[in-house]
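queue> pop job 88
queue> type: inverse folding (structure -> sequence)
queue> payload:
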């Protein structure tokens, strides 16, 4: 115990009071005697809300996901709801994913809401995150909760909060709710459920959601084209198995092969190192199945079904994974074409993207006379755009981390509708004698060839968090002046909300909320962004380069030159 600071010891001792169950207290005493380092990691801070809500390792302590940290969140949120809507009968919706303890933790959250006289709609089984966003809007709820940690390792879980519009919490509400939570003592959590306030929901809501996905994700593809598309799908042991196969079937896609070994939801994700569709290895089994059945397209989703990885055949008929920027560009162009053909582009439409996503989004949308609004990382900012600009029609939006949203019936990234959209694009391309990959190359010829790469450095624990913090301090105090022989011409610092033109010295204000992000722009058109992750122990470097592409024949050579340029940038930055 002598190794713990007095402040840390006070935090630990709070959890040894009668407000906490005997098993929790026993575990803490065991750590006190046997593992001070683990105890310190468990209590040295409170879990924080990041870009995707609150995520953390499950276990005892203030820096862990457990009954008490989530109970405290929910009690604080209950108090906040009552203050915000004093004369209304409050309603919330709750969903959860395939992770260990998700179901029991969801029930804890439901119990606390119900004990505070708030009506709860609780899904009977695991469900995709986008279905929760839809459900809370559909049922007129004041907020919604999803228990999920997206693609994090098996020991993680999390708590995402959605507001009335179906989007995740954004400032200033998140800070107000956090202040409400922090003001509470654990003894003030009301865990005594009122079961009369909890209503179990399921298939009836699935029906409405799936039909709405089909309505938003279908675009005049002939039945013959749908049936001719050979689709391979994997849920990577996650929640999408509850919605995507049925959505594709109802939409007319009958030639669908599912990776059976990954069909059953399992929080251990036994067949993959990481259930992250950004990583080609996660889609290996699906790609192998596609080779066996001569698949045209492979789609895999993350455990909570808000992001998707897409694999298509390249010019050599090899299966290759598209990165999130490429998928987003294809989907956005397809939607813009559909809107244009329907005569719906009238100067009051917009597309949403983020500051670390490909600059090609703005180039593409400008070609259609449509605005591309750029926000901070995280789909909550794209959802906020819809709320902030009710006079404009939202077409769709995406970010580089494999998320996309079609229309505004769901206010978060939505792998259900986006999977259908990907199939629509592939089916129509195949009917026209092309592949999705060829469609992408055509966009590069028309708008410029943009190539991106993400590099993530993992820095775990207390020391890791400090190291990441210091890296950002160093980058601010000693800004990069030149990258790979090309001078930095502009720096954007989203923490300080300033944009500086290096040649003129002019400084302008960035009109978005503060965020710990630095972006460098160079004379040759390269873009380098630095951003610590809001939900994982990582610092991320986003590199974007571009050039012109004259024709399909020049694609491979031009791509290699861009790859070499990115390699040179990373080498120059010692990454």
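queue> result:
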């Amino acid at each position: 115990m002598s190794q713990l600071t007095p402040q840390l010891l006070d935090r630990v001792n709070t959890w040894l009071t009668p407000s906490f169950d005997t098993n929790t207290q026993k575990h803490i005493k065991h750590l006190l005697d046997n593992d001070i380092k683990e105890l310190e990691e468990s209590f040295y801070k409170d879990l924080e809300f990041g870009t995707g809500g609150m995520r953390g390792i499950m276990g005892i302590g203030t820096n862990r996901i457990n009954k008490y940290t989530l109970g405290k969140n929910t009690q604080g949120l209950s108090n906040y709801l009552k203050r915000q809507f004093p004369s209304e009968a409050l309603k919330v919706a709750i969903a959860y994913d395939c992770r260990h303890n998700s179901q029991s933790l969801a029930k804890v959250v439901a119990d606390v809401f119900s004990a505070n006289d708030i009506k709860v709609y609780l899904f009977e089984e695991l469900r995709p995150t986008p279905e929760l966003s839809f459900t809370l809007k559909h049922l007129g709820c004041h907020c919604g909760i999803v228990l999920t940690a997206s693609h994090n390792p098996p020991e993680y879980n999390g708590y995402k909060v959605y507001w009335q519009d179906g989007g995740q919490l954004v400032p200033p509400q998140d800070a107000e709710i956090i202040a409400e939570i922090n003001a509470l003592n654990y003894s003030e959590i009301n865990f005594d459920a009122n079961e009369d306030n909890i209503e179990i929901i399921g298939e009836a809501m699935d029906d409405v959601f799936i039909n709405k996905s089909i309505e938003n994700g279908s675009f005049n593809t002939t039945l013959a084209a749908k049936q001719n598309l050979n689709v391979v799908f994997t849920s990577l042991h996650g929640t999408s198995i509850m919605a995507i196969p049925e959505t594709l079937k109802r939409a007319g896609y009958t030639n669908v092969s599912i990776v059976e070994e990954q069909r059953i939801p399992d929080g251990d994700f036994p067949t993959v190192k990481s259930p992250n569709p950004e990583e080609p290895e996660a889609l290996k089994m699906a790609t192998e199945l596609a080779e066996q059945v001569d698949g045209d397209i492979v789609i895999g989703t993350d455990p909570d079904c808000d992001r998707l990885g897409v694999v298509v055949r390249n010019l050599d008929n090899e299966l290759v994974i598209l990165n999130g920027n490429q998928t987003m560009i294809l989907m956005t162009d397809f939607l813009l074409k559909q809107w244009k053909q329907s005569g719906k582009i009238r100067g009051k439409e917009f597309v949403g993207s983020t500051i670390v996503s490909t600059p090609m989004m703005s180039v593409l949308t400008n070609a259609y006379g449509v605005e591309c609004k750029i926000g901070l990382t995280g789909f909550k900012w794209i959802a906020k755009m819809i709320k902030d600009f009710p006079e404009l029609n939202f077409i769709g939006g995406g970010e580089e981390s494999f998320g996309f949203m079609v229309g505004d019936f769901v206010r978060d990234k939505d792998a259900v509708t986006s999977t259908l959209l990907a199939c629509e694009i592939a089916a129509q391309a195949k009917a026209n004698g092309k592949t999705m990959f060829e469609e992408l190359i055509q966009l590069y010829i028309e708008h410029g060839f943009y190539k991106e790469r993400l590099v993530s450095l993992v820095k775990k624990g207390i020391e890791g968090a400090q190291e990441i913090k210091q890296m950002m301090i160093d980058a601010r105090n000693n800004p990069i002046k030149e990258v790979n022989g090309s001078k930095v011409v502009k720096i954007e610092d989203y923490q300080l909300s300033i944009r500086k033109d290096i040649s003129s010295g002019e400084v302008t204000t960035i009109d978005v909320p503060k965020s710990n992000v630095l972006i460098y722009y160079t004379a040759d058109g390269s873009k380098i962004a630095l951003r610590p992750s809001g939900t994982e122990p990582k610092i991320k470097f986003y590199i974007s380069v571009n050039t012109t592409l004259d024709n399909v024949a020049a694609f491979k050579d031009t791509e290699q030159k861009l790859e070499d340029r990115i390699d040179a940038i990373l080498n120059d930055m010692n990454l």
